[in-house]
Amino acid sequence: MSVKPIRLFGDPVLRTPAEPVRDFDAELRRLVKDLTDTMLDAPGVGLAAPQIGVGLRVFTYHVDDNEPGHLINPVLDLSPETDEDDEGCLSFPGLVYPVERAWGVVAKGFNSYGDPVTIEGTELLARCIQHETDHLDGVLFIDRMDPAQRKQAMKAIRAAEWWGDPVPQVKVSPHETFGKAL
Ligand code: ZN
User: 153 CA to middle of ligand 1, Å?
Assistant: First the structure.
């Protein structure tokens, strides 16, 4: 079991686009294990590699009590139907806001052995896949909010106890995230 510190908003790694994985080796499988352990410990619904300071296109997910999964180098196909629901992020402890996302997604990528994988999901799984893939592009959920909602979120961030350190980090979220944290 290897739980890593989760990087918080304000850490530049969260705004840095991640590199595609090229080597499907033991080191990559260790990264998937670290991400899975850290996600389950938090606990979170999903976790992307930049959130533990690793700039590779890898994320893990754990939705609706199914087995935890992972996806590498994801490419998404989004449904035209959208869905607005509450969303949180492990890099923004304690904050949950409504965010509009595509209702369904087909995600193609690879597992840690380099085998092609397709994940189809709707609702929370689709939301999670979109949220985590955004992390790999340096995009955060505040970027997906409408302007009024973002303004309210930024106010709450500036008031948060974790905000303001040069590179704030927590090992475990001190806040209840209502099962919405990604
Ligand atoms: Zn997140």
Answer: 14
Residues within 5 Å of ion ligand 1, judged at the Cβ atom: 89, 182
pLDDT per residue over 63-105, tens digit each?
988 999 999 999 999 999 999 999 999 999 999 999 999 999 9
CATH of the domain at 61: 3.90.45.10
User: Using H for helix, E for strand and C for coil, what is the string for 101-164?
Assistant: EECEEEEEEECCCCCEEEEEEEHHHHHHHHHHHHHHCCCCHHHHCCHHHHHHHHHHHHHCCCCC
Residue 99 within a domain: yes
- pLDDT tens digits along 6-64: 999 999 999 999 999 999 999 999 999 999 999 999 999 999 999 999 999 999 999 98
Any domain includes 143: yes
Instruction: Give how many domains the chain has, as a whole number.
Output: 1
- Domain carrying residue 87: 12-159
Spacing, Cα 44 to ligand 1 middle (Å): 9
- How far does residue 140's CA lie from ligand 1's centre (Å)? 7
The catalytic residues are 132
